[in-house]
User: Fold these one by one.
Assistant:
Number 1:
Amino acid sequence: MNNQALETIFNEIADLLELKEESGFRVNAYRRVARAIGSLTEDVQAIADRGALEEIPGIGKSLAEKIFEFLDSDKVDFHEKLLAELPVGLITLARLSGVGPKTARLIHASLGISTLDELEAAARAGRLRTLPRMGKKSEENVLRGIEQARRQSARTPIGIARPMADDLVAALRALPQVRQISVAGSLRRMRDRIGDLDVLVTSDDPDPVMDAFVRSPWVLDVLAHGPSKSSVTLRTGVQADLRVVPPEAFGAALQYFTGSKEHNAKVRERAVRAGLRLNEYGLFRADGEQRIAAATEEEIYDALGMPWIPPEMREDLGEVEAAVAGALPRLVEAGDIRGDLHMHTKWSDGSGSAAEMARAAKALGYEYVCITDHSQSLKFAGGVPPEDLRAHIAEVRALSNKKLGIEVLIGAEVDILADGSLDYDDDLLAALDLAIASVHSRFRMTESEMTARVVRAMRNPYVTILGHPTGRLIGQRDPYALDIDAVIREAAATGTILELNAAPERLDLKDDHLRRARANGVQIEIGSDAHAAEGLALNYGIGTARRAWLTAENVVNALPLVKLRAALRRKRGG
Ligand code: DGT
Ligand code: CA
Ligand code: CA
Ligand code: ZN
């Protein structure tokens, strides 16, 4: 849990510095380190013990000292000092759409406001309009921002929930009384936001398992404590349910607690029609106690005349009917992915070199990667000027496939400017293997303006991929106003590939949009958007793709290199 705590602290430092409007470089340095620590697979304590902290990308002497401080005292002095200056609640206020750091500080300094509730009361009472440059309209914007923030905070983004669940599972797995263990619920179905964590354990001796669970160090509050079910609130504010069943009922319980409720209702209906009864202990004859299936999910589905249905599909969106008809698609899986086409290096706001990213991708078993740094206008993210990009193209072309064991392509994540034109000339784009066009600025346009902007970019023959098409940050920023169906139609008409950005805070396009894209025959690129070697994982993206029933045929980076190159050239007519 050290890593998660440090990630939070460094992110809070970045937030507080941003609140103070300190230099973007400083803010970004802390964010980068937070991200690097968050993606480590080893505890920082172990790394510190080996004296290898400074080998973590982005960590120099002063950050290493802060980590030591934390390991010694559970605190970082610099963080505490910042918190003493500005209440942490202001971070939430500054993040509201319609507020921002300057206004948040002003509101705090002049009205003493530091929480959402206080801000809401002040806005409703018309007290915000007494401040300089604030009016009735800005009060309305603030109220809208508050409503949006409340709506989002009720569920936890999967990128935050999953690591918590993994820690919990690892701790429980170590108990001698635990036989099988699995996550269940919406987390197993890979939904992008999670209501609560569900963990299922089998054991012949549940009491010690439940005791260990409710006493674990990250539990804040125990809501229920019984032999088959316990519920707690974790220190992170997220609720977790643990259920313990006997080993012979594992499959039935896993099927039941994975849900969704709608999927289970559909499955139960089939059981009833076959004269059977299904619950968390097994599949039984309706007229007696005879158990037909219980140990594995496979045997339960099989007894109901279906193949096993992948958890990501269990939303009652036609999967039961497809399974019964023998028409379940073979969903894309990690092993189908041959490369990653979206990543940043230290040429813009990443922390590795092109060769380092390539080697890390090679270690994942990939055949190719594409380096896609930010374009010139994105100054705060180290956007690359055209002449530098020319030099990078030459450098990447000189990287040897033989030596690295992986093909390195060169592209760019090029900004879509406010009018839909691109941040590099066509000549330069033509010299790249691909261009991902993304919106990174001027989010507040009307739907028709934004749609026209994006569509114009897609009509450029050198725009290979539309990056993170809706711009959402799960739990932090709503998608911008965009007619997604018009964008999907345009993608189909122009042969533009749509991105499924696999960064856990984005997952953009989301499942529902991906289903519509698939129905329109649009190709999808699943890209990590990694900013360091550790960020190359695509697991959340693949889970999301599976929720949309995507197969390897729908995914452009499941193609072998030769076919990929052809696919990338298709839109250019070459
Ligand atoms: P969440 O937590 O809101 O993200 O969504 P889930 O799907 O994880 O829902 P949760 O945690 O309430 O329950 C986990 C699963 O357990 C759910 O998907 C289906 C099953 N389940 C829970 N309560 C009931 C119930 O009252 N009836 C049925 N049929 N299934 C239930
Ligand atoms: Ca749940
Ligand atoms: Ca639950
Ligand atoms: Zn981007």
Number 2:
Amino acid sequence: MIVKPRIRGFICTTAHPQGCAASVHEQIDYVQSQPKLDKPLKNVMVLGCSGGFGLASRINAAFSGGAATLGVSFEREASGNRTATAGFYNNIAFDEAARAAGLTAHTIDGDAFSDEIKAQVIATLKEHMGPLDLLVYSLASPVRAHPRTGELHRSAIKPVGEEVNIKSLNVDKGEVMMVDLEPATEEEIANTVAVMGGEDWQFWIDILREADLLAPGFRTVAYTYIGSELTWPIYWEATLGAAKLDLDRAAGEITQSLAQLPGGAGQANVVTLKAVVTQASSAIPVVPLYVSLLFKVMKEAGSHEEIIEHIYRLFASQLSHPETMNLDEAGRIRVDDWELADGIQDEVKRRWPLVTTENLDELGDLDGYKADFLKIFGFGFAGVDYEAEVDPTLGR
Ligand code: NAD
């Protein structure tokens, strides 16, 4: 079949296998063009390994840190006239590239919240890798079937407290408009915390510790976003922020639980990352407009980073140097400092009230936003023939 982007709202229902491979290779090439990490990594697990920040973390761990990696993600293979999901193709490209480079790589596809997948991970680590020195928690999911209660929790992307009337962007139409966002109920807030909060992260650490699969000095990080006050009504002060605050609670409890790790205490940190275009972030109202303005301002200032560059900076400047990490008062590692720099935020805030559908191209970077969005699904890579027939199953 010939694969073209088919966009429905904030998702693209097709993915290009060769384009996804090109995306993975481009990220590997970037990491290989940089100095290797000062501290090599031995065994690393990434939960949410197939796209966005998780994929970039796995690429850094493997190709910059020399690590054997185990990745877990929830992706769909091709069937009938449907392509596989982008993450499915990304995983294949990563595994092939890692093995070609002599690196151990195992990928497990399934629901990371479930006990079955946890058991499969334990078995795989015992058989093929051994104790972990780093676990990256990078899941972004709208639902979680709770393994103990069987309850299905669905997250809500809503303000907390009052209704919010706020500027947003219809990316498809390139239209800037006001949207009304209804506040979440208490139940919706609790459900969002159940899906995106820290409980599952803790379950993972507990089961790995009990199975003796944490190496001395083991580290674990979970990714969060705080961002600009402009997005707080729908992010940091909203349901998602409530869930992310729960990660801070979990980080403290995990660190305590790692104090007695044989051979050396462990450490859990939340990492605050910058805003980028991923499948997860495209679904959040207001964020695409903020990101369009932010990208334009950061590109003009020369401080814009692609996902892989941002995560390389995290690994090279922070995780490799625990003694000099840029921590905030809550113990979070901050690599969102470039996004939140005064000069950048002042300019984004100056543009925010001024931006309209008519001047969006001038004040914001909608083209950059759209290009990044298509790249998630493997579209827009030089050297890929998008008119050629492809086998969406990759012969599997
Ligand atoms: P993404 O959508 O690109 O990737 C999500 C990953 O989670 C995929 O690998 C997917 O397969 C996996 N996943 C989802 N549900 C799963 C399940 N049940 N079992 C196993 N795997 C599952 O997301 P992203 O934007 O890279 O987000 C990763 C983390 O980074 C999130 O915690 C997010 O809040 C955080 N973050 C994102 C941004 C941003 O701007 N995108 C900014 C800061 C922090």
Number 3:
Amino acid sequence: MAGIGEEIGNLLDGLGVDRRAWTEGSLPSFTPLTGEQVAMVRVADTASIDAALDTATAAFRAWRRVPAPRRGELVRLLGDELRAAKDDLARLVTIEAGKVPSEGAGEVQEMIDICDFAVGLSRQLYGLTIATERPGHRMMEVWHPLGVVGVISAFNFPVAVWAWNAALALVCGNSVVWKPSEKTPLTALAVQAVFARAAARFGDAPAGLSQLLIGGRDAGAALVDDKRVALLSATGSTRMGRSVAPRLAARFARAILELGGNNGVIVAPSADLDLALRGVAFGAMGTAGQRCTTTRRLFLHDSIYDGFVAKLKAAYASVGVGNPLEGDVLVGPLIDRAAYEAMQEALAAAKAAGGMVTGGERVGEGASFYVRPALVEMPGQVGPVLDETFAPILYVMRYDDLDVVIDLHNDVAAGLSSSIFTTDVREAERFLAASDCGIANVNLGTSGAEIGGAFGGEKETGGGRESGSDSWRQYMRRATNTINYSDALPLAQGVSFEI
Ligand code: NAD
């Protein structure tokens, strides 16, 4: 599509990104909308990573002394700047990650929402006062800033994941060093420019408080292995998590791991089937199946199976697939050829395991990869159903007993998001009590979480929690303080030590 490069240039100029950062580098950057190369981005070398971590350490030392509500003011300004930049940044997300416009805008809105949340939080970083067994003593917990927070993010949420981490990390008194996906460096450059504007308005933020390191796995690995990084928040595949987790553990670093999902929906006999249909359709096909919370497994009760599958197939056949800049489509492109090939391999494996495939074929040709979402009726939870394939494939299975299907639902390695559609309160509660995922919903789909709740999953999803609720505690360290205001020295547990 002629002109996309020019549009990117205009967007980046408008957002305040230095042209040299994306025209004079060595990392080619592509748009999945057409597959064409649109930029050559500068990458961080070993020396610049080292310097960035030194500056981030110095920035932390200054920032931790700034009162938390004042730190919140910087994040308030960041939210302001994001509001002003929302349309352009959302458009860039569409061009670089392939999201349809409403999802691109939703991703930037999520950044704004977490800034609002963090501003309020900046006045609520409180600890406990705890009853002490010793007379004339007071015991309390105090939360302190932690250090440099490293953020590694995935291509499919190219900007929101940074904001989830950075907004909390900054109000908690930390500095931030971000290594975005090598597939989405342009949106990262734009976000860094937006942050720079907020910092300029703030006035006295330390230099290097929020930094960007563009590069591939090696740049990510540098954050993993460097003891100057106190907490690493890594979002991506379980394969990535398997590599970074032991290395972080080896140096006793803190980790927030947000890894792959294999999310399931159960539709019970009493379900509101229209609601279920819409929830499953968005969950399975939205973002072209490239959300960590995408619905990948669907368990339908025998009594509603045939009718529901027929309606779902009709929805699958009607959904628009194509370039979101050129028409009113719901399903944009896969990120690249590798994603398309992984999808086709999974579909072939599903067929070999007895699956009946509808859809899944490529739409168009050339350097971009558009596919019709695939619906696969499976004889059981076998083969590729057990793993996450990051593409729009929905495996459909039958069930007749709720307890059996909940066990089956839980019997995969990942544990991110889950849901049941039912109007029977007993079924709903049995499911909520038994789902082993970090997210369990009733009468809504698996994808589309709000920032107010803690976000993350169990098992091979990594166990991390980001965003709302009390996730902020991970970005701080806790000290238990005991103060003796008596003139005696009683020892705990009645121990006596007279000298
Ligand atoms: P990916 O694992 O290929 O890459 C993610 C990031 O990790 C990139 O920045 C990459 O450069 C870096 N990386 C990869 N290997 C590394 C290593 N060995 N050491 C250090 N850094 C490394 O994932 P992706 O294809 O960009 O994203 C899709 C995956 O992310 C899916 O599995 C999806 O479920 C998952 N995801 C999870 C969440 C969540 O919150 N649980 C959110 C978004 C995406």
